[in-house]
Amino acid sequence: MVLGGTGSGKTSAVIPAFVRAMLRRGYGGLICTVKEDDARNFMALAHHMGRLEDVLHIRPGGPYRFSFLNYSLSREGAGAGIVDNAVSVFMECIEARASRRESDSYWTEGVRRLLRHSMETLRAAALNVTLTALKALIDGMPLWNEAGRKAEFPEDSFLAECLGRADAGRTETLHLHNYWLREMGRKGSERQVAGVVSTFLNMADPFLSGPVAELFASDEPDNYGVNLARKGALIVLDLPVSEWGDTGRTAQILMKKLFIDELLRRQGLPPTEVPCFLLCDEYQMLATPSDAKLMQAGRSSCVAALCSTQNLSGLYAAFDPAKGQHQAHAMLGNFSTLIGCRNSEKTTNEWFADTIARGVVRRHNRSITEGDSWQHGANVGWNTGSSGSAQGTSWNWGRSSGLSRSYSGSHSESGGWSESVEHMVMPSLFTQLASGGPQSNFLVHSILFKAGKRFPPQGRPFMGVAFSQR
Known about the structure:
With 470 residues, the protein is an alpha/beta fold. The protein contains 15 helices and 13 strands. The protein has two domains: 2-64 and 224-345, 3-Layer(aba) Sandwich (Rossmann fold), CATH 3.40.50.300; 68-214. Helix 5 packs across helix 7 (158-168) and helix 6 (131-139) packs across helix 7 (158-168). Mean pLDDT is 85; it is low at 99-103.
């Protein structure tokens, strides 16, 4: 995790240094984008490192298609084909788009049941599970007919067709008939059913039309998957949030969720696979609580997270308002390497200083006192006199003078030391770090902290590091 304010050099120097190292070693990965030039900058790095041919450039109008629901139900592995797992992928992605009130839980659970029975119906009819098919199936739900005193399917109902195909295939369908006809089509259920269907349509709206539907919910055959990263593919999601807003965010949260689940299913590094990484600059825009699984268990699956964010306050806001700080701190605690660049945000700087921890600081003191004293003195005197008598006159004259000088000097010196427990890196230091450019010879200064590491010469778990912008 790289923490640094706007213009601190984290995107221009720190992130590229790690990306180049991983590309050089053959990593595969998923690259999320927030800013308009993120995809372009990564592809330039991939070209420089000779990895451009491994890039899958996922963008509207491009050639790549991937149905996430069909993938969830048909992927390899022991948990494949379980409808509840596919429902969870969809619901987790949707619920991460915006905070849902506790009062929404009734309708959310209704949507879960609707999706589960819809998917089971399509599978029983031997059809691919896509959002287009789910929508058509729900549009054909039975309605209560008061005259006939029973639930009846509308004309040309796709749901009725699917149930007929399932019955013909001798699949156990009693529970499906009971759900559609006796629960969803019973007398007096109209308002409840309308609420559940409306909630589903609101949730699924980004996947029913537009670029997200084109790229991740198409009825066209899949021609790639997140599992390709395990073979060295570099999947670039060119749907920057700055350009595509909530649509881009929804698509990337979905793919991030699938990527994490896919990579965590492997243990160790199979001989035919490579290490992988998730790259997410401006992470606060795409963070979800479920990402913590990657930081907790990614090491044993040989998958790394490379994320950056401006400050902790922005990260708190990305999570549940009631427990956002705890979720963010739990996640940050699982990053083994933290890098702090220039930052003026008080909360972030104090948190980083506290994370590095306090230590015994010895302070030496010394005092010197010196003094000089000079004294000068001088005196001069004259005396004259005369006397007379009958015999004659006499004169006398005299002079006296004197000079004195004295000097005295003093010198004293004292010293000592004291010990106190203080931050080993003061929070104020992060406000003073160089952020690159000509004034610092294009070097970005940072503090690197790695738990359990002992950096020379003093064996402390942190050190200063300069990253080049060139």
